[in-house]
Amino acid sequence: MASGDPGPDGMVLWTRLARDPVHPDGLGGMPGGPTDTIDVDWEVAADQRFAEVLQRGTARTGAELGYAVHVEPVGLPADRELWYRFRAGGEVSPAGRTRTTPAGPALSPLTMCFTSCARYEQGLFTAYRRIAEEHPDLVLHLGDYTYEYGAQPSGSTPVVRPILGDEERTLADYRRRYAQYHADPDLRAAHAIAPWLLVYDDHEVENNWADMVPEKPDPDFPARREAALRAYYENVPLRANARPTGASMRLYRRVAWGGLVNFHMLDTRQYRGDQPCGDKYPSDCPERTDQARGLLGAEQESWLLDGFRGSTARWDLLGQQVMLSQLAIPRDGARVYNPDAWDGYVGQRDRVVNGWTEAKVRNPVVLTGDVHAHWAADVKTRFDDPASPVVGTELVSSSIASGGDGSEDRPETAGVLKENPHIRFFNNRRGYVRTRITPETITADFRVVPYVSRPDAPAETRASFVIEDRKAGLNRT
Ligand SMILES: [Fe+2]
């Protein structure tokens, strides 16, 4: 079970029923008739032993919902640690820890871990276990919670454990993949310790999808996207207002942590223009800097800029997928870029960065996943101009498992850092970022696990940075 999207008086509580979780039918061996339903009891308590139950109720689920349960209790006390569990068919689930956010303008400190990219077959989920051991108040997952691929080799990264099934295409395929992931004890521990805020990236559907454009031409892509988004919603703790309609869902949203943090959770897949330069990595072409292009879409862009203007939070944190800061890659005497990241959509990047600057957002910090490595950067108004001011900060988390054991460095790193002086840190191990957020500072610890090809890796801090109130940019400690 899991919880997510906390507010001052509630959150969403999630579970899914199964008798044979990885059955190829995707329904976990449960009855598949449209009228087959089961009632699931839930309760929320003030204590781990459920001596003081604050709320209880019953939710109905069935085949139509993939036997998923999403419950949204309201009226719970603010800024409190709470426990929840489910009961169905004579079985009781383990207890999960969750919490409500502080109410109103309260500035209670927050411990938050964020991460991304958990390719099951490429590594053990030890980093999820280490996140659980941090006892965070909140976990952010910035995409690639699952991967769509079948059992196939990928570059030089070895397969360390088998993935079931072929590349996902049908609802049953996607549902079964989540069931296999959810059997992982480390992932379960990370869900059981704290509420999560999730956004998908590409691999919950298909590599590098952009709106209705799949990676390779595919007339069935709308049906595939519909199946993928439906299975995603069924298998993560999102609120009911995110439930897909056909092949669309409303993922982007704001979540406040009292007056301390305004989380702007973005969707950079569903409304983006197709990748420029033929989506060749890395590359450059005039389309890349075309002002009209974007990866948020017009509606989400104005929602975000309105959110900047209306924010009174101490910290505005953008929870999103792909790297925002410029990453110029020197190659054969030229500078080339990743067309799938914000570097492929420079016009909209400028509007977002200028938007928070003009709105005088007090402390904008961008949180990013996708690239399977840790990065930290000062966000500048003009990345090519060393004299231009630092107007924000970006923290990029490495992956849970994608990329295998990794390395401390890469042969090209020194050249990349020299070409991009606003980038302050890089590490190519797996891991997550632990943040401690107070009214005065954010402390970010870049945590790594030295290996994921065998169990029990410790978590180690490779670098720590402090961001100070009203002073954009990184200070290494
Ligand atoms: Fe990824």
Question: Can you tag this structure with a few keywords?
Answer:
7 helices; Immunoglobulin-like; Purple Acid Phosphatase, chain A, domain 2; 2 domains; Alkaline phosphatase PhoD; single chain; seven-stranded mixed sheet; 477 residues; Phospholipid_Metab_Enz; alpha+beta; binds fe (ii) ion
Short description:
The protein is α+β, with helices and mostly antiparallel strands and 477 residues long.
Question: How would you explain this protein's 3D organization?
Answer:
It holds the Pfam family PhoD_N. This is Alkaline phosphatase PhoD. Residues 113-446 form the PhoD-like phosphatase metallophosphatase domain. The chain is α+β, with helices and mostly antiparallel strands. It folds into 2 domains: 1-100, Immunoglobulin-like (Sandwich), CATH 2.60.40; 104-476, 4-Layer Sandwich (Purple Acid Phosphatase, chain A, domain 2). It contains 7 helices and 24 strands. It has a 7-stranded mixed beta sheet with strand order 11-10-9-21-22-23-24, with helices on one face. A hairpin with a 7-residue loop joins strand 3 (37-45) and strand 4. The longest helix has 15 residues, at 221-235. The two termini are 37 Å apart. The mean pLDDT is 97. Bound molecules: fe (ii) ion (FE2). The site of fe (ii) ion has 6 residues, from loops.
Secondary-structure map with pairings?
Blueprint: E1 2-4, E2 12-16, E3 37-45, E4 53-62, E5 68-71, E6 81-88, E7 91-92, E8 96-99, E9 110-115, H1 126-133, E10 138-141, H2 171-182, H3 185-193, E11 196-198, H4 221-235, E12 253-257, E13 261-265, H5 297-310, E14 315-319, E15 329-331, E16 334-336, H6 346-358, E17 364-368, E18 374-380, E19 390-396, H7 413-419, E20 423-427, E21 430-437, E22 441-449, E23 460-468, E24 471-476
Parallel strand pairs: 9-10, 10-11, 13-14, 14-17, 17-19
Antiparallel strand pairs: 1-2, 2-5, 3-4, 3-6, 6-7, 6-8, 9-21, 12-13, 15-16, 18-19, 18-20, 21-22, 22-23, 23-24
Helix pairs in contact: 1-3, 2-4, 5-6
This protein binds fe (ii) ion.
Organism: Pseudonocardia eucalypti
Pfam family, one: PhoD_N
InterPro entries: Metallo-depent_PP-like, PhoD-like_MPP, PhoD-like_sf, PhoD_N, Phospholipid_Metab_Enz
